[in-house]
Amino acid sequence: MESIKELNVYPEKGHSIMFVFRRKPGMSLEEFRYHYEFTHGALATKLPGLISYRQHPTRKPGKGDGAYVPDEAPYDAVSLYIFENAAVAEAAWVSPQGLLVDEDTLKFIDTETMISLPVIPRQVL
Q: Which residues of 20-40 are buried (b: 16+ CB within 10 A; e: fewer)?
């Protein structure tokens, strides 16, 4: 049997942070998703030292989602950023590109309800 380490498709090394967030009040879900994918995604992928960036927009919960899922998703998306290391991540966030990402974040994300989680990505299957 393969070990979890052998199945891991995420980078073994790096500095990872996940953001869980909602759209700004008054913004439609369609506007949010478009901005997230095409505007914010284009800016985020240019962060220096970024080795992986994944966007996970939520969908309407439904059949097959299990017993612990509410009728409506409480958040609109999750992003996972993986940098080469912590020093590179810190430099990226304060770089000119990082400042553009921050500026754009304020245009479509409700930062008052955003959750930031330092994580260790691990693919189990």
A: bbbbbeebeeeebbebbeeeb
